[in-house]
Write a structure and sequence with these properties.
The chain is mainly beta and 184 residues long. The chain has one domain: Tumour Suppressor Smad4. About 26% of the residues have low confidence.
Amino acid sequence: MTKENIEVVVIVICAAFVVFVFIMLLLIKLGIIGHKSPLGSVNKIHINGGMNVDFMSGRSADIGLTGFGENSLGTVVVGVENEGGLNIIFENVITGMTFSGVLIDRLIVGRKFDNNYSNLEISDDKSISKLHIEVIRDKNLVYIRDLGSTNHTWINGNYLTDITNVYSGDIIRLGNSEYRIYIT
């Protein structure tokens, strides 16, 4: 095959994939197919690398997948908005490991999971405090604040000194590790 033929094949495969995804999303939106998550009803999906689809509003943006971590084909993490809460996903930007929890009003994030400690345990970095940050939801806005952690918190390279708004895709440094946060 010539280089031009290979490029045409790649374009055709990509176009077929995009058409398949949109047909599946349409079938889900119409209720023809679907899945009831143990977390609640599926009405929003986030896929790492940039595809966000909100079935309630019909909006979608930034379609694309990227490879990272040990899996050179890419890692896909799907978050489901459940009734009354949002999924919060922390993805280690180096290892690709993900940690997730459900945010209703507030979510405590730290190194040790215990009913008396964190609601979301991030166990891949010992420099993260047991009670490191609090993630707070106020309607459609999400904030974080440091809970007096030993090694502090940074958002997009800025030292966190007060409660701060956080957006899906922001980079948060907890201890010695950086995580991309996904809010779905």
